[in-house]
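re: the backbone from monday

yeah here it is again, tokenized this time
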């Protein structure tokens, strides 16, 4: 049970970092993941150790953590853990959209896309 919990935390951490283009503090991460600061450090260390070439999550003292998007996309494609998971159609669409947005040659503002989608669907 702990393994799936850790796997979900890793996925949640990567997803949160992928949605934030700038640096994110460890305090922000521990609040979002609802874990201790030590757990945040361990998760980041584990993820970075799984990625052989260089860190997947970049850290800069005084600024926080930032995801290397190009490496993240390659990591997702090559990571068997994520291929074994069965996703619902909605989750699959969401992940495909995230990958397309992350691999876009120009930066894309996710908030702008969400607001455009809501206008089309008349979400208020």
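seq for it, each position gets an aa:
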């Amino acid at each position: 049970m702990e393994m799936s919990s850790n796997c979900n935390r890793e996925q949640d951490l990567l997803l949160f970092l992928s949605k934030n283009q700038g640096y994110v503090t460890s305090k922000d991460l521990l609040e979002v993941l609802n874990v201790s600061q030590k757990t945040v450090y361990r998760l980041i260390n584990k993820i970075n150790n799984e990625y052989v070439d260089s860190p997947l999550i970049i850290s800069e003292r005084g600024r926080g953590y930032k995801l290397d998007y190009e490496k993240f996309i390659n990591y997702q494609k090559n990571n068997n853990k994520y291929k074994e998971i069965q996703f619902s159609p909605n989750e699959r669409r969401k992940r495909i959209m995230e990958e397309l947005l992350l691999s876009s040659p120009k930066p894309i503002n996710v908030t702008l896309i969400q607001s455009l989608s809501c206008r089309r669907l008349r979400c208020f």
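The chain has a mean pLDDT of 77. The beta strands are 57-60, 64-67.
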